[in-house]
Amino acid sequence: MSRTKKQHVLVIGAGPVGALAALYAAGRGDEVDVYELRDDLRDPSTTPLNFTKSINLALSERGVNSMKHAQCEGLLETVLNQTIPMHGRMIHGGRPGGEIYEESQSYDVQGRYIRAVDRAMLNKRLLDYLEQMPNVRLHFNHKLTGADFRKNIAWFEQRTKPKADHAQNPTQDPSSESGQERPKEVSVEFDFCIGADGAHSATRYHLMKFARMTYQQEYIDTLWCELHIEPKISDSDFAISPNHLHIWPGGSLMFIAIPSLDKTFTCTLFAPESYFTSLADCTSEDLVSFFAENFPGVCPDLISPKDLHQQFSENPHLPLISIKCTPYHYKSSVVILGDAAHAMVPFYGQGMNAGLEDVRVLFDFLDSHDVYNDSSNQATTRQERRAGALNAYTAHRTPDAAAINDLALRNYEEMSAGVKSPLYRMRKWLEETVNVWLPVLGWETQYSRVSFENQRYSDVEKAVARQGRIIATSLGVGSAGLVALIGVAMFRRGGFRSFDLRHWLR
Question: Which residue from 56, 120, 115 is spatially nearest to 84, judged by alpha carbons?
């Protein structure tokens, strides 16, 4: 494929999604300018989006595959070398007699696993690679204040280091508050703008002035607070297994812990707002009693009463937002990706992975529509081809984003209660058994399809619903037939490989 003349691409937002989008564009020869509201995200003093000290994320196949296709030599290996494999969930709880137990549940019958990754580390690696590219420029402390997506002009306020009391809307400098001096404004012309500036996206705000966007925003009745488990005092090792995502399910409550390379665990308490309100002015004894009742084994075994009370009191109690919108673009000028397009609750660990996948899918469409092809026999202009690519991208990606958004909301029930349910365990066992002994059927658990495949999210939803109907029918007429079928398959495994049973199971 021959390359056309360079286009000027603006990327708004220098988080993982924006940085990966810039790598994809720069790798295709574009002149790329990345604008970020905050200070350099590699600076430890820069306030993260949610005010917490560190953010551990789950990196799965979709994110890995998207970085692999960035064609940046060594990037994926560098990132993966600084992750921790998590082979399954470790379910914690207490028995009626007071005994504390833990039970491992593997993620995947084929042995596949997700990885714990530090967001700051991932962001740093991506920005380091960008900084090495001669056709990329990074602009920190620049706030997008306006955009004309018909004339392809954007305006930014160039600020000194802001007072970050709100990551999305930092306080003005004292000089500007007093009216002595306003931040310098710069205007930038561009060919194509990619907005990856988070759930409170300024790009989306300005896009809505041009595109007839359908927009839905929901705050769910659950808040979250970050806590930490320190390494063991005796030998400075992990306090609990580092190769699991730890869950204390509590019905409408949940406590989780994800390992970090420094042998700490980043933990999150999820609970309805009413619980946080009732604990707002609680004593250390009250909080310890609350944890003992709902999350046995956490305090004082893993977090001391003093640290628990201090962390709960000092760390913010933050909301969870779910956003759906469409279209994601306007003509050939602009597109939004990641949380700017489809912010989701974190219960499937797919927010970042879906955002990184957005980048891969977007550039697949740009490539397939010959946006980077300089063939002399092209009957359309580059802008027309890019407009066609963005139309196709929105049509393709909207149902997928809606599907994972809904799946993430529903997965809270599975994580906070379903993992202890006999029905959940039975279905997981049945789907995994069919996957092993009747692979020709293509059965997999929902979690495996979401986390270890690149199947479209909307197709995952359909496939899992179809499997659910088959299971329900089998249970309704008696499971003997299905069990017998699996038994025969175990005895004559090879014979079923050549017989496509998917036709009559649809």
Answer: 115
* 452-475 tens-digit pLDDT: 999 999 999 999 888 888 878 876
DSSP-derived 3-state class of residue 454: coil
For residue 506, what are the contacts with CB-CB under 8 A and spacing of at least 6? 466
Which value, to the nearest 10 degrees, does the dihedral of the CA atoms of residues 284, 286, 291, 294 take?
-170
Amino acid at 383: Q
Q: What is the DSSP string of 65-131?
A: HHHHTT--TTHHHHHHTT-EEE-EEEEEEE-TTS-EEEEEEES-TT---EEEEEHHHHHHHHHHHHH
SS3 63: helix
Q: Is the pTM of this model over 0.90?
A: no
More confident call, 490 vs 360: 360
pLDDT bucket at 478, cuts 50 / 70 / 90: low
Residue in the block written with tokens 């990345």: 34
Residues in the chain: 506
> What is the bridge-based pairing of β-strands 136-139 and 84-86?
unpaired
Q: E strands within 140-252?
A: 142-148, 153-158, 184-189, 192-195, 214-229, 244-250
Query: Looking only at Cα atoms, what is the longest distance across the chain?
Result: 83
Mean pLDDT of the chain: 87
Instruction: Report the amino acid identity of residue 248.
Output: W
- Give, as one character, the DSSP assignment of residue 173: P
Find out whether 51 and 316 touch, Cβ atoms under 8 Å. Answer: yes
pLDDT above 60 (res 491)? no
